[in-house]
Design goal:
Elements lengths: L1 H6 L3 H10 L2 H4 L5 E6 L1 H5 L5 H5 L5 H9 L2 E3 L4 H7 L1 E3 L5 E7 L2 E4 L2 E10 L2 E6 L10 H20 L3 H18 L6 H17 L6 H14 L3
Parallel strand pairs: 1-7
Antiparallel strand pairs: 1-2, 3-4, 4-5, 5-6, 6-7
Helix pairs in contact: 2-6, 8-9, 8-11, 9-10, 9-11, 10-11
């Protein structure tokens, strides 16, 4: 975080990175792309939020929020806008758009872009990105969408891409689901991912993954 330190307007972000134990990660070779909220962005959160997040007992929540601001690799603003979304280190995607008010990441405005660092790129934003809650209803819709897109790709003959889509969604649910999603549902997904790795040796893990998705989907009603 050397660039952020020198900028003098990211003191809260630097304190959060230190409290989360992520300083050594972000100082590593990377590369990373960081959506960096300014001190003013953190000040927009409800009073007491930052102080609460910096407490040791809330470290997991703080880590999740910070990972939601980081993308693996160097992604410059023109690439981000063209892609329209990006997968963060939290394994949750952020939406990237251009509106009448300028370029946006979710509901945060990009106020400075393409600041190059030794191990990545920094884009400055005016609001803190908060990961949306992944409720049971969200998981249900995500599984439906995953099966729909994965099936089309599988039927077109691209088995590896289908498996990649299934695995990505399953891992995102495992990492981001809230308490409304039962442990048994998450365990079904974990077991299916494990079994699919063994199925790779036989050339087609998609049916193992699809079976796990179907079981997890129906388990949501239990």
């Amino acid at each position: 975080p050397a660039v952020a330190t020198n900028a003098k307007s990211f003191n809260t972000l630097l304190a959060a990175v230190k409290a989360a134990g992520l300083a050594s990660v972000l100082d590593s070779d990377g590369p990373f792309t960081v959506f960096a909220p300014t001190d003013a962005a953190f000040a927009k959160l409800p009073k007491g939020t930052v102080q609460t997040l910096l407490k040791p007992e809330n470290k997991d929540q703080l880590v999740a929020i910070l990972k939601y601001h980081v993308i693996a690799g160097r992604v410059f603003s023109d690439q981000a806008v063209e892609a329209q979304s990006a997968a963060t280190l939290l394994k949750r995607k952020v939406a990237i758009s251009v509106t009448a008010d300028g370029a946006m990441v979710n509901d945060a405005k990009l106020v400075a872009t393409d600041i190059e660092a030794a191990n990545g790129v920094i884009h400055v934003i005016d609001s803190v990105l908060l990961p949306p809650a992944m409720t049971k209803a969200t998981v249900r819709k995500m599984l439906e969408s995953t099966v729909s897109s994965g099936s089309r790709i599988y039927n077109a003959g691209n088995v590896s891409q289908c498996a990649k889509i299934y695995r990505s969604a399953m891992n995102e649910i495992i990492d981001g689901a809230d308490a409304s999603v039962s442990k048994s549902t998450l365990d079904i997904l974990r077991l299916s991912l494990e079994r699919s790795r063994m199925a790779e040796n036989h050339g087609d893990p998609c049916w193992v993954l699809r079976h796990g998705i179907d079981l997890a989907y129906f388990s949501l009603d239990k």
